[in-house]
Amino acid sequence: MAKQNVAEQFVDILARAGVKRLYGVVGDSLNPVVDAIRRNSAIDWIHVRHEETAAFAAGAEAQVTGSLAACAGSCGPGNLHLINGLYDAHRSMAPVLALASHIPSSEIGLGYFQETHPELLFQECSHYNEMISNPEQMPRLLQTAIQHAIGRGGVSVVSMPGDIASKPAPEKSIEHALVTERPTVRPGDDEIDKLCRLVDKAKRVTLFCGSGTAGAHAEVMEFAEKIKSPVGHALRGKEWIQYDNPYDVGMSGLLGYGAAYEATHECDLLILLGTDFPYNAFLPDDVTIVQVDVRPEHLGRRSKLDLAVWGDVRETLRCLTPRVKPRSDRRFLDRMLKKHANALEGVVKAYTRKVDKHVPIHPEYVASVLDEMADEDAVFTVDTGMNNVWAARYLTPNGRRRVIGSFSHGSMANALPQAIGAQFTDLGRQVVAMSGDGGFSMLMGDFLTLVQYDLPVKVVLFNNSSLGMVELEMLVAGLPSYGTANKNPDFAAIARASGAYGVRVEKPKQLQGALKDAFKHKGPALVDVVTDPNALSIPPKISADMVTGFALSASKIVLDGGVGRMLQMARSNLRNVPRP
User: Fold this and answer.
1) HSE-up of 219 (CA within 13 Å, CB side)?
2) Whether pLDDT at 553 is above 60
3) Alpha helices in 250-302 (DSSP H)
4) What is the dihedral of CA 277, 283, 285, 286, to 10 degrees?
5) pLDDT at 561 over 60
6) Could you tell me which of 478, 568, 549, 475 has the C-alpha nearest to residue 253?
7) 362 or 320, higher pLDDT
């Protein structure tokens, strides 16, 4: 049997860790690894057109599966292109292993062609970032990198010069069992007792939930029922906590709606469950606050805490709920449910007025129709900008759908590449990229990746010919919009020229038919919808402090265009409110 080289050993270990694909663009320093993949049936090389797409795709795959995913870039400029997608994966706690191949090891530090220093460049967007400078470091270094990515939730970067990849693997290399799943973390009894006392003492408790409530829906509902608590959520918590939730009071934050803001400010105990909610201007400063998080570095960095609880949400609530006293007083909960329904009633009709005649098409209407027509287990990938508003207000979670976006990093152009990674996990599952024209055109070259692999991703393009969110930021600052207009082509024609299905929609009555035909199409499809950028108004409960941070405009000038099926959900929850 021929002796393995380092590249072959590298690929074998990735496959043993559960990696199915390596996304990237080939290049000379990466060639030994790509050739090893060619000869290994357990793992596929996915050839994308831009390495940024590779990193976004790997991050999305990791978020959909919960397992390790991988991407790669050749030396210098090749691996530099990975950095934006790796930042997003890292901030989303997606376990991703990135291979940054390197210049010949004998030339490092001598200003060689394409020389960079990846061990410095990727330091901030990774838990682990080291270089294989000697074959004897394999496989221990790669195994350590894998365990950092999985165990801590985020990115590990391994740099490897091309000449090292071609050298023979060590004769008696030490391989050990790989960690492929994260453990649950239970708080100590003292913390649980303290939290129990705070809950029992409080008269009005509100739960505010983030992505850390994934897998804990039943436990949150049981706890909310026992203490009669309203339940709000951040954007990343929406898909995990909003569905089948009779205590739902909506979302707080820059894209918020409903009564979540009131519920978090009018309680006397606020419990933050699995959320690293970044906008502290939306959090109260005069109530008792408890935060529960599996990552201790998140505790207390957004607001002053009266109690910090280190543990994952499900295990914490499993310990806490049996200990707290049940209560029957629903007055605070019912008042928040009524406020929530009333708040939604006030905006729900905005996009329905003359919708069949309004040209350009209301973007809210597009999102509403898309929500109704998409599969019950669809994966939505959402571009940053105004598409975040449409996803937050119109996509209806049900426990089976997924909604993935650059919600923590806030990068443009994420939806299309994330759809690629999501679709590769299951070719039979519907994947819909909610793209903006600005974001789509930034990485439009990777629409060709859909065609090359015949991936059945459906791109629904909200085309308002502008960088809409940036225009709003300028308006908030009192500036005239400048440099935000896009002179766009017929994107549907480009899709057809690429070998995909493409249709352009300019009138509301064309929309349902266009989406139906695109969804029926077996391969990639693009629906280019010309939308109206001018449906804006100022929502209530906004202070000057709240317009600081990401997307200034979203907090002060937000589309007042309804909330889709959420009003129906709120009305349904009101049926549980006892009548006097």
Assistant:
1) 19
2) no
3) 260-265
4) -130
5) no
6) 549
7) 320
Handedness of CA 74, 77, 80, 84 (dihedral sign): negative
Question: Would you put residue 483 in left (φ > 0), alpha (ψ -120 to 50) or beta?
Answer: left
Q: In a 3-state reduction of DSSP, which class is residue 363?
A: helix
Give the type of residue at 514.
A
Please check whether residue 446 is in contact with residue 511, taking contact to mean a CB–CB distance below 8 angstroms: no
Q: For residue 102, which of 135, 77, 123, 124 has the smallest C-alpha distance?
A: 77
Q: Write phi, then psi, for 428 (nearest 5 degrees).
A: -95, -5
What is the structure's pLDDT at 456?
98
Which residues make Cβ contacts (< 8 Å) with residue 74, sequence separation at least 6?
24, 25, 26, 27, 28, 29, 30, 101
Specify whether the CB–CB gap between 392 and 257 falls below 8 A: yes
Single-letter code of the amino acid located at 86: L
For the whole model, what pTM was predicted?
A: 0.92
Using the predicted structure, report yes or no on whether residue 315 has a pLDDT greater than 90.
yes
DSSP string of 77-99, one letter each residue: HHHHTTHHHHHHHHHTT--EEEE
Over residues 140-161, the pLDDT tens digits come to 999 999 999 999 999 999 999 9
- What's the rounded Cα separation, in Å, for the pair 385 and 484? 13
Q: How far apart are CA 54 and CA 375, in angstroms?
A: 26
One-letter amino acid of 247 = Y
Whose tokens are 């090389």? That residue is 45
Residues 6+ apart with CB under 8 A from 483: none
The rounded distance, in Å, linking the Cα atoms of 526 and 514 is 10
- Give residues with Cβ within 8 angstroms of 458, minimum separation 6: 430, 431, 432, 433, 518, 519, 524, 525, 526, 527
Residue with tokens 């967007």: 125
Strand, helix or coil for residue 273: strand
